[in-house]
Amino acid sequence: MATTQRRAYGSCLSSLVFLLLAPGCTSGAAGPELRAAGGTTAVSGAAGEAGSTSSAAGAQCTSAEVNRVGFRVLTRLNRAEYDNTARDLLGDTAHVPRNALPADFGDGAFDNNADALTIDPSLGQQLSQVAETLAENALAAGSPGRKLLLICEATDHACAERVLSQFAARAWRRPLRPGELDRLLALYDSARSAAFSFDQGLQTAIQGTLLSPNFLFRPEIDAVADSPEVNAVAPYELASRLSYFLWSSMPDDALLASAASGDLLTGAGLQTQFARMWNHPNAEAFFQRFPGQWLHTLDVSVAKQPAAEVFPAFNATLKDAMEGETLRFMRELVTSDRDFLDLLDADFTYLNAPLAQFYGIAGQFDSEFIRVDLTGNAQRGGILTQASFLTLTSPPERTSPVMRGQWVLARLLDAPPPPPPDNIPNLDSEVSATPQTMRQKMLAHRTNPSCAACHAAMDPVGFGLENFDGIGQWRTTEKGLAIDASGELGLGQGFNGARELQSLLKSDPRVPRAVVKYLLSYALGRQVGDADRCLVDNVTTAFQSADKNRMKALVARVTALPAFLMRRGAP
After folding, report:
1. Domain contains 305
2. Structure confidence by residue, pLDDT tens digits, 299-340
3. Distances in Å between the alpha carbon of 530 and those of 151, 157, 417?
4. Burial track 337-373 (b if 16+ CB lie within 10 A, e otherwise)
5. Entry pTM
6. Containing domain of residue 110, as a range?
């Protein structure tokens, strides 16, 4: 784009800040025109349970505590959601947002935690650049976006009005309100009056649409600002909640039509849309992102790269295979009608030639993954024996019983140990006169009183995984010394090796509760804490009994909770 064009665009964007950003802060109020007219809503059925229940901890929970609706701040689209939305809105397959925006790490396990999704000046500039690039690409000759956008052949104001009316409603995921289209047309008119072409005028307005809070955020604002009352979210707001939970992307036409008719607010309508969306290709986002972020297995070397001089077998091909195994393994557990807790001791996995060779598993393999039966395999079976987990919980040059134990406590038992105190000596700086296994070094390290308390919980768990080296390869010795893989999971729960540890974990009631708590955090886009204890306990009981530990049934259950269907203002 030429310099003079950029100046004009800058002028248009200055207008955008004044004309769009300010009204966007209150736009999204749930007015009566967006709510279903009459009928039984999904909310009333979910929230209408009376009486009290017993939590897993044994304490009595009131109906209000079980059906608690927590506060969530205005939610910005994270990088992955923006990227997927650009694909579905504009046909963008170049992954402009993913390549140009910084990763969102969020608070806790997930990158959709609303509290962490703020916008600082640097990100604001990057979002502006992304919007400009997407708008320009969308109108390029022969692009998928051009086919989606240009619903009329003329190049006049009437055609621009049709294009922008349809585009903005899809981008903002709801019908436009009075005055909103006029502000977008003002951007178009400003560009045209500066002698820019029809396409350039549209580009300016499209860029403005993508910079509006109505696009970058998912507004859920009641008519009475910050009302402490609990209210049902409006139909289009619920459509967005559902689509960004299951698809990490915008609602499609069928979901928006269900919102428009009010059918989405009925129990039957919600179930129908869930079933359809679960079987849609876009649901792959949930199948990959929820387990991948919960277990931290999307990128096994995100924090560090295994040292080549210590682990020469590790390379990009093997890294991809490690991540691919866990992705496919977890996808089957999420989507199939089987016990989700089989993630701990499953008798199958997915392997390709590089990973099968690394594991020492014979068979006919090539570059493609195939499902492999592990019945009778004493070394492999379940998430704790997969190289992805074992690599991401190891420092570059060795194993770490601490990191592995901490991962099990935090991810599988929801019992993370406290952070270490300051000035703890580095384990690698503690020199021994004779060769030591990692277990021996850790036991010596724990003689330091400042280290003992936390290590007493983590180390005995991590010791059970010492038969796997820093990239997950099986071993029976270390530095010429025999591996001792005995450990303890809590008082009196001894085990020897990964398979016995997994067996103990599968019968531990903390595991299904951790699954529920992490899923609720992902679904609600906020930290699930102590105030949600009764909600978590109640859903966990249903997950184990009615749902038989099936993930699909649990996800469907979560979408019908008051916590998902309702909202309240700031406390």
Report:
1. yes
2. 998 778 999 999 999 999 999 999 999 999 999 999 999 999
3. 51, 56, 16
4. eebbbbbbbbeebbbbbbbbebbebeeebeeebeebe
5. 0.89
6. 3-26+76-218
